[in-house]
Design brief:
124 residues; two-stranded antiparallel sheet; alpha/beta; three-stranded parallel β-sheet
């Protein structure tokens, strides 16, 4: 009889962070973005700790409001977003990240820095 392999709840990344195995995607459903905040808040209350959004989805504000309302400390959440196609020039990346962080009402904290390639790095 075969056994089912144990599934890890997180992936260890090579930068010392962990990525939850399961995340909630926030691409618009048939209702557009009208229920995004409600759905993200519900998912966070049920234990989700990885939320995936994108500037192009037009819902970073709603995702940010849900995160804030949940009261879950930022350190416990893994939030991903994506650059819109109009922000792919290396000189535009830092501004695009700042706009997303502002919309999401998130900060990286005192130990964050922007490396020369335009990617945020966080050190523990």
């Amino acid at each position: 009889m075969s056994t089912v392999p144990e599934v890890s709840l997180k992936f260890d990344l090579n930068n010392g962070f962990t990525l939850p195995t399961v995340g909630l995607g926030t691409f618009q459903g048939s209702d557009g973005n009208s229920r995004v905040k409600e759905i993200v808040l519900s998912a966070l209350r049920k234990g989700y700790r990885h939320i995936d959004c994108a500037t192009a989805y037009g819902n970073e504000d709603e995702v940010g409001k849900a995160i804030r309302e949940s009261g879950i400390p930022r350190e416990e959440l893994f939030v991903t977003t994506k650059l819109s196609q109009t922000w792919h020039e290396p000189s535009d990346v830092a501004e695009a990240i700042e706009l997303s962080l502002r919309a999401l009402q998130l900060e990286y904290g005192a130990n964050a820095n922007l490396d020369p390639s335009g990617f945020y790095l966080q050190q523990s």
